[in-house]
Amino acid sequence: MSEFRTLPVDEAVTWIRAWTDHTWPMSIQEAFTIRDNLGWKPLPNEPDFFTTPLSRNGHWGGYILQSKDVEIKGVSFDLSSPPSMSPEMDESGMQSAEEALFLYASPLKQLWGPGKMRTSTQKTTHLRWTLPNKVSTSLIRANVLINVTIDSPWRTQIKEDYDRAMEDCE
Length: 170
What we know:
By secondary structure, this protein is of the alpha+beta class. 36% of the residues lie in helices and 30% in strands. It has one domain. Helix 1 crosses helix 3. The model has no long low-confidence stretch (mean pLDDT 89).
């Protein structure tokens, strides 16, 4: 059985900022350039999906979310790799993942402020920042998987509108 791995914090911040610091909207070609500059490898028949140093056995470690227009909607990638590609682990594994998530969050809080805690349960933690350029960054732990999702300004606006509508329903 393989071990649970996480990306070093500095490298994770570099990966995240490669996307958030870029000018948005972003074309698919610009997204492919960032992907390639980070050393991520596209899957042979699906260039929107890619492997990262955390990927195991050729499984994808992230994807670029294309729109029907020229621009991308966002990107999502993993910051952890669970044992044997199983998303389930014992309590200590989930605690390790939770600690890793907050280690990743610390430099992001220094850059962008406290962010917003979206959810926090035993199995899920979700932190989100909306940046001045209207790009949103979500740091998510689901069981032992730690993921980053970076949304375009367009997609961020849709999510914020949805959140406001749901608050009105409460």
